[in-house]
Design brief:
Blueprint: H1 3-11, H2 16-32, H3 39-64, H4 72-88, H5 93-117, H6 122-143, H7 152-159, E1 161-162, E2 165-166, H8 167-184, H9 187-197, H10 199-204, H11 209-235, H12 246-256, H13 268-287, H14 295-321, H15 326-334
Antiparallel strand pairs: 1-2
Helix pairs in contact: 1-14, 2-13, 2-14, 3-8, 3-9, 3-11, 3-12, 3-13, 4-5, 4-6, 4-11, 5-6, 5-11, 7-11, 8-9, 9-11, 12-13
């Protein structure tokens, strides 16, 4: 096998083409702005991308199963509010963290109960909980000023450094590793892929489709709750509307990372890379002085370009590397 064929087969692997686009983008921003590779910028980029990466990772479970969870934006905002409210009122850090995770769990249980238990459309259910969560946060923050806490142990959750790495990033890395193993190395993970590819076939193969769907919405809710805890620790304040738009960022990150919206395809590391890709893009645009009014347009165009490049590269490589049958080869030689 030639070097070209070996390289082509590597590029045909899901996520590799997007990873190359990601590296090219980083090189461009590094050349365009002297601050892009500065320690402060790297630190801030990693810390601020934690929430989006976590949401994308949790959402990946739902997407691979063939569903959608739009409520994660309100989930992360309300979970952050519950966490900060608890610690501002004297609760130990452990209880404050549990309050945020429990809030996320409630979102997941409600979504899972309506989708898996009652058979209601996941789009409608999570759109409703998205609206309800946003409304509760508006009411809550309009009556209670969540301006921050002086509890250093709580603030250390996201802002402390271990060996120079922010604790929020370390916590996120551990969670991503656990989720990746659960999705790709366990029977439970395989049932999620099976349900996403063909729920009827999975049902005939004795897979509990309802239980699987309930589980993935619960996981998505819990991960969004953890994201809310880290977001509250990082910002140390919660404003009305916090979390708005996060669901679209997470979905876009998953799409860029190659997670199929139709289900049955994707991985945690690729979804995390896609979300981080968008964070780097946003930070880079700021550093090179792009007008913020153009951010949405440039970001949307970049998402389409990255996905098109990934899909196009895979199709071209697959057609190039497709084995030729002896009969076809003989025909080609005769011509």
């Amino acid at each position: 096998m030639s070097i070209f064929q070996r390289s082509s087969r590597v590029l045909a692997i899901d996520g590799v083409a997007v990873s190359i686009v990601f590296l090219i983008m980083c090189v461009y921003f590094a050349l365009a702005s002297p601050y892009f590779l500065s320690p402060d910028n790297i630190y801030n980029t990693f810390v601020e991308s934690v929430s989006a990466v976590l949401l994308a990772a949790g959402l990946t479970f739902v997407l691979i199963s063939g569903g959608i969870d739009l409520s994660i934006g309100s989930n992360i905002g309300l979970s952050a509010a519950a966490t900060l409210f608890a610690t501002m009122n004297g609760a130990p850090t452990v209880l404050a963290v549990l309050a945020g995770v429990a809030t996320g769990l409630i979102f997941g249980l409600v979504n899972g109960a309506f989708v898996a238990g009652l058979g209601v459309s996941d789009f409608i259910v999570t759109l409703a909980t998205l609206s309800i969560g946003a409304g509760v946060l508006q009411v809550f923050t309009s009556h209670t000023q969540l301006t921050g806490t002086a509890d250093s142990s709580f603030l250390a959750l996201a802002g402390e450094k271990i060996a120079g790495i922010p604790t929020g990033v370390l916590i996120t890395a551990v969670i991503l590793l656990i989720l990746e193993v659960a999705l790709t190395k366990t029977p439970f993970g395989r049932t999620i892929y099976a349900v996403g590819i063909n729920p009827n076939a999975a049902y005939l193969a004795a897979v509990s489709v309802r239980r699987t769907k309930f589980s993935v919405f619960t996981i998505s809710g819990i991960i969004a709750g953890i994201g809310g805890v880290l977001l509250a620790s990082h910002l140390n304040s919660v404003q009305p509307g916090l979390g708005g738009g996060y669901e679209l960022t997470a979905i876009a990150g998953c799409v860029v990372g190659g997670v199929a919206l139709a289900g049955g395809r994707g991985s945690i590391w690729r979804a995390a890379l896609g979300a981080f890709f968008l964070s780097i893009l946003s930070r880079g645009l700021q550093l090179i002085g792009v007008d913020p009014l153009w951010f949405s347009i440039v970001t949307g165009a970049a998402i389409v370009a990255a996905v098109a490049f990934d899909r196009g590269a895979q199709k071209w490589l697959q057609s190039t590397l497709r084995p030729v049958s002896p009969a076809a080869a003989a025909t080609q030689n005769a011509q």
